Amino acid sequence: MLTVKTYQAVNPEYAKTLDTQGLRDNFLFENMFAEGEIRLNYTHYDRMIVGAAVPNGGSLTLDKVAECGTDSILDRREMGVVNIGEQGTVSAAGVDYVLDRGDVLYLPKGSGAVTYSGNGRFYITSAPAHKELVAKLVKIEDAAKLKLGAPETANERTINQFIHPLVMESCQLILGYTQFHGGSVWNTMPAHHHDRRMEAYCYFDMDPDSRVFHIMGKPDETRHMVIKNEEAIISPPWSIHCGSGTGSYTFIWAMAGDNVDYTDMDFVAMEDLR
């Protein structure tokens, strides 16, 4: 079963008028991981698709998505898949890829239908692509790693870069996930935004009663949303994206836009946050 929900782009002036439910309706992806289903969210931010497939021991095939306007989803797109569940298999272009928990698979333009099987919980991201590249399965030990933060600022973390120029080539999709060291709960501080591309966060590895207070909005007009396990959120190009959890968590970040330079971001000084 496939369901697709479309999210229109929202400008920052309109976003300032939204109440809590309005923010959630326009920026939050809820209930993505449904057993026996593929649920996608098609956004008008750089045409990013965010969603999940949970085959629940069986198999699910993703092929035609009407919102893409092509015969098959990857006719003019690339895809990144992260397995956040038990071992599972992703099959495309006649090749079976076995993904353990934490593995990331890149599928290029022209890969055809994609089948998800086994007991994996597959987080899916996709962006338009301009050329065909090479599929690649990246294990955690093969990811590029960037260590940032410190215990005294509660943001000591390791950034694992998978679909990234240091690891492999993609068209515009950049993806990885950030893991926190013991006692650290603040992500991506100091805050930043990047006007040349959008970003999506997917929070997971959270206890059922834990929450992340995700901060968004323009630097001088911030808002927050309370997010639970396995939910994701859009970060428009004009919005900062940072947050703090009530307990430990991991988040997957995926970006699409003008370039693949991970460092292309505009930092915001703490004194400029409102």
> Can you say what the CATH homologous superfamily is?
Jelly Rolls
Report the C-alpha radius of gyration, rounded.
18 Å
Q: Find the structural class using helix and strand composition.
A: mainly beta
Q: Helical segment tally? A: 2
Largest sheet: 7 strands, mixed
Portion of residues in beta strands equals: over 45%
User: Are there runs of 5+ residues with pLDDT below 50, and where?
Assistant: none
CATH class wording? Mainly Beta
Number of domains: 1
Strand order of the largest sheet: 1-3-4-11-6-9-12
N-C termini distance: 43 Å
Strand segment tally: 24
What do these coordinates show?
- By secondary structure, this protein is mainly β.
- The chain has a single domain (2-272), classed as Jelly Rolls (Sandwich).
- The protein is built from two helices and 24 strands.
- The strands form five sheets. Strands 1-3-4-11-6-9-12 form a seven-stranded mixed beta sheet, with no helix packed on it. It has a seven-stranded antiparallel beta sheet with strand order 2-21-18-23-15-14-13.
- A hairpin with a 5-residue loop joins strand 3 and strand 4 (49-54).
Record the SSE blueprint:
Blueprint: E1 2-7, H1 12-15, H2 20-27, E2 28-29, E3 37-43, E4 49-54, E5 59-62, E6 77-83, E7 88-92, E8 95-99, E9 104-107, E10 114-118, E11 122-128, E12 136-138, E13 144-148, E14 157-163, E15 174-180, E16 186-187, E17 192-193, E18 197-204, E19 212-218, E20 221-227, E21 231-235, E22 242-245, E23 250-257, E24 266-267
Parallel strand pairs: 1-3
Antiparallel strand pairs: 2-21, 3-4, 4-11, 5-10, 6-9, 6-11, 7-8, 7-10, 9-12, 13-14, 14-15, 15-23, 16-22, 17-24, 18-21, 18-23, 19-20, 19-22
